[in-house]
Amino acid sequence: MRPLDPRLLRRAAPARRYLGVVVTAGCLTSGLIVAQATLLAYAIVHAGRGLAALRGPLLVLLAVLVARGLLSYAGEVSALRAAAAVRSSLRRDVATQLVRLGPAWTNGERSGSIATLMTKGFDSIDGYFARYLPQLVLAALVPVVVVARVAGSDLISALTIGATVPLIPLFMILVGMHTKARTDRQWRQLSRLGGHFLDVVEGLPTLKVFGRAKAQVALIRQVSEDYRRTTMATLRVAFMSALVLELLATLATAVVAVEVGLRLLAGDLSYQTALLVLLLTPEAYLPLRAVGASFHASADGVAAVNDALAVLDTEPAVGPAGAGACDLRRDVIGLTGVSVRYPDRASNALDQVDLEIAPGERVAVLGESGAGKSTLLSVLLGFVPITTGTMRVGVRSWADIDIEQLRTQIAWVPQSPYVFGGTVSDNIRLGAPAASDAHVAAAAAAAGFASVVAKLSDGYATVLGDRGMTLSTGQRQRLALARAFLRDAPLVVLDEPAAHLDALTAAEIRAAVARLAAGRTVILVTHDDRWLDLVDRTVVLRAGRVEPALAVA
Questions:
Q1: pTM score of the predicted model
Q2: How far are the Cα atoms of 350, 365, 409, 447, 495 from residue 527, in angstroms, in the given order?
Q3: Shortest CA distance to 279 belongs to which of 10, 45, 91, 474?
Q4: Of 46, 162, 334, 526, whose Cβ has the fewest other Cβ atoms within 10 Å?
Q5: CA nearest neighbour of 260 among 268, 249, 252, 250
Q6: Alpha carbon 49 to chain centroid distance?
């Protein structure tokens, strides 16, 4: 971790105003420290004159103390607001980037690690912006101002302070090099713990059925113990470094005090000057000691930000927003020699695929498990990068297409639709947030979902739990179809829409899909031959390659 990471400062654009207040408060505070010591030394030396003679200096000293308190408050409030602004900006940018990267990329990452990053990780940024940066400003300003003020009264003491002050940053750098590895390891352990705990919670029914819940509890206990040991090791380093910095500051102050005392006894130094030097010397080391402590407190936040910046620096596999637009009502989708290989696979998931889908055409994609059907859909949806080959929509290549604009023309009905925590109406509106209540009801009726809604306690205002566990599999599938009807997109992509459903429900889903397919381009992945009467032709995948096309009568 560098003392001042330029990447973090570049991300701090939303907080520049607050950081400006922090820097200004630091500059003024450094001047007030010198004024306070000067006034205090003067008041002590001239205490024999009586309170009336010192009323003016004491009132000014009181004003300086109040001003220091107000500046400290303003600086801390501004630093906290800066941290909140940067945290909010980073969360928003990372969330936007995760959407751009798509599920294929996030599936390669542990969802628990991402959740830890977006919550605990970004909360740790407060330590950097609200504690470390303000102290760093003071550490850069106060020693310089103190040395300059002391030099005006006693050059020898100024040289002594100037020679010993750099020792503290030197030891901070040495300790920081050792701390970085431990902090990174601690963050990785926390991410692993968060990811594993989320996996266990999501898979708890399966674990209970197979009698493996207790084994997972033991594993979580072990991961937690690893995190505890790593955290304690990091804390030991932080405490030892604080001890080293305190010892250095104490010894340096003692050196100055000894030389000042000897010269005072010899009559080479006035009492007021000696007192001023002794009052200012600890102030020169105090910000450096504080910045050392803040350095360790902010290390978790910096480790989390490094992960966030790695996400933000990842290039999406699809065309950028603002690129060329396309129209799926008239543009042909074409794949030429397209191959896809995942990093952990020895063979291609798709191998030299040539495919064209004309507007209004209905195509069924068939194949055994592992044949590449899901990868083909992910390519068409822009979730997976092409390893070799080209893909185009109309006359534009894939790299020149605005993927966000393209996706507005696609309705996707996955095999296992995700239902978000919220009302039925909000879930149906997922692809068309501005749709009216009448349009939502019409879409639900077209999908055969209206009868389900009628049985719910609050109708379309019924709040569904996370993942829609209060709905059956068939009901969740109808909800997904209602989304597609409401979106009214020219291209509909369906992935096994009636898998794992009973015969009656599957027939109802097929009837709803037939209504949805009217006048639209349809790409349907299925194992079920009963869907073939809805399509114009089939594409058979085997081991990632397309077999000769079959027309459907």
A1: 0.64
A2: 18, 9, 26, 22, 10
A3: 45
A4: 46
A5: 268
A6: 63
Q: Identify whether the C-beta of residue 339 lies closer than 8 Å to the C-beta of residue 350.
A: yes
Sign, Cα dihedral of 276, 279, 281, 287: negative
Q: Copy the structure tokens of residue 91.
A: 């969360």
SS3 category, 433:
coil
Cα R_g (the chain), whole angstroms:
33
Q: Quick one: tokens of 168?
A: 């503290």
Q: Where in the chain is the domain with CATH 3.40.50.300?
A: 333-551
The domain defined by 333-551 carries CATH number 3.40.50.300: yes
Which residue intervals of 203-270 are DSSP H helices?
204-209, 213-265
Q: What are 64's two structure tokens? A: 């300086």
The pLDDT averaged over each successive group of 10 residues in the chain (553 residues) is: 64 76 85 88 82 84 92 86 84 82 63 72 77 79 87 88 81 64 63 63 60 66 73 69 74 85 84 87 82 69 76 69 76 92 83 91 88 87 85 85 84 86 88 89 92 89 78 88 91 86 86 90 87 88 78 48
CB 514 within 8 A of CB 447: no
- The backbone torsions φ and ψ at residue 411, rounded to the nearest 5 degrees and listed phi first, read -110, 130
What is the DSSP secondary structure assignment for residue 112, as one 8-state letter? H
As a whole number of angstroms, the distance between CA 496 and CA 196 comes to: 29
CATH class of 6-313: mainly alpha
Up-side HSE of residue 344: CA atoms within 13 Å toward CB?
A: 3
Instruction: Kindly state the tokens that stand for 276.
Output: 């001023």
